Structure formats: C-alpha cells, structure tokens
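Researcher: I've been going back and forth with a colleague about how HTH-type transcriptional regulator CysL might be arranged in three dimensions. Neither of us has a model we trust, so I'd like an independent prediction. The organism is Vibrio stylophorae, in case that matters for your notes. Sequence below.
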Amino acid sequence: MRYSLKQLAVFEAVATSGSVSKAAENLALTQSATSMALAQLEKLLGRPLFERQGKSMALTHWGLWLRPRAKQLLFDAQQIEFGFYDQHLISGEINLAASQTAAEHLLPNLISIIDSDFPELRINFKVQNTEKVIEGVRNYDFELGIIEGRCDDSRLQQEVWCYDHLVIVASKHHPFARYEQVSMAQLEQAKWVLRESGAGTRRIFDGAIHGVIDDLDVWREYEQVPVLRSLVAHGPYLSCLPYLDVVKFIERGELVALNVPELNMKRTLSFIWRGDSLENPLRDCIKREAKRMMKDNPHVM
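Model: Here is an independent structure prediction for HTH-type transcriptional regulator CysL. You can compare it with whatever you and your colleague have in mind.
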C-alpha cells in the first residue's frame, strides 16, 4: 500500500478546513510539510483531489469519492490505537449537529448519559437550524445530524428518533385565548412572529397553512425561540412553536395553546447521515442510547 495514514489525515484536514494553512495549524505541521503530503498523495493516486476556488480548496470529483473512505480508514486506525492502549471499544470523537428543539430539550440529557456510560466517546456538538444541519452533514462537517421534519436529499440516510408536534400559542390576554376553537380565517387576521426561513418549525407551519392562508401577517422572524416566546407572552402576537419549547410556559399560565382543529402539525425528529459513509460504532451508539432515553420522556412520543 503506497499511501500513508498521515497523507490521508492531511487530505481530511484540508477537506474540512478548505485551506492548507489551516489544516497545517490543526495538525501541528508546517505548511510546507502539509503541502508536500497532499502533493504526494495526489501523485500516488494519479488524480487531483482539490481545485482552487479563490482562496479556498474545493474537492474534485475524485476527492469527494475518496473522503468517506479516508474518514473510515482514519477512524479504524484510531480504534486500533485505542484498543492496544486498553481503551473502551466505544472511543473517539464524533461531530454532531442538531436543530434547536432537540438541542435544548433532548441533547443535554443524552450527552449526560453518553458521558456516564461511554466516557471515552467525545461529542463535538453544534446547534443549527434544520437546513444548515442537512448542509453540514452533506458536506462532511458532521457524521450525524438531528433535524426536524423531512430530509429529501438522496445522498443522506434518515431514521426517525421520536415525534413532536407544533402548537399555536398566544398570551393569556390575547382575545383568541378565550375561544374554545380558533378558525383558519381568524389566524389569517392575526399578527405573527415566527422562526426564520430554513428552520424546520417554519417549514412545517408553512406547509400546514399552504393553500388555506394566502397572506399571513408576519411582523418579525427570529432564530431564537426564547425571543418569540417573550414577544407572544407580552404582546398581541401569535406564534407557531414546538410543544417541547412551550409546555412549561403553558402549564404556568404564561402562554395559551390555541385549539385549531384544521391544523395537524405533528412532526418527526430524525437522525441523518451520509449514505456513502461506512459503519461507525460511535454513530450507532448515540442512536441506540437516544432511542433508549426516549422511553422515559413523558412529553415526546
């Protein structure tokens, strides 16, 4: 075998950072040594793996083909090293991204379980909206993603973790809070504050009202759910938010969930990963423990 693990590690570092200099810094190598290792790998394989796009390095077709296979080889090499140093079988790092609802309400408990039962597994964790989680998994930034709703990218695998639903909320002082039921026509007359475009919550809400409400009066859009909750609690607005994000505020009487029989906004929280990735025991461990955890959660099906 002519190529080395060091060359593959350099290739992966450049693919991740998009820069030879950043890759060299991350690997604690000189820039010249990093460039040389990459050039040697390309020469040995007989194919260009990157092309320059301005100041960044972009993967060629061959680089895209190589990346999941290189990541798997590097992962297996790490597992061998851990094994000979008498480490746990589930050892190493995994990059995970999750949408806001899962990140705030479910991931802290899951990470606590992982830290307790699998102390050698390190989860590098980012919070992003569903659209960006999908993009990050597609671009190899994350080995595992957790999204709201559906993913239509054929390059990614999807597996349902659990179910949640969205609710329309108002303040206890809002006129609609006194109604036993609220119609779609009444919703069309309301002032709204909503999640931004690209958020899973927004996509599901837009799909639910599509063809029924033509002109929704959206006053503000925010990424932060606490901002939306506060605006609704203290203002004349309605919002559509995940039940997990508002259940405590409804129980305390700060918000009211409106009964809108025409709306059905049940949704999935799902795992996604690249379909061309090989076996990954760290990813499988997280999925298994996450499903086990859900059996004890009263608010999520």
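Researcher: What would you highlight for our discussion?
Model: I'd start with this: The longest strand covers residues 156-171. After that, consider the following. The mean pLDDT is 89.
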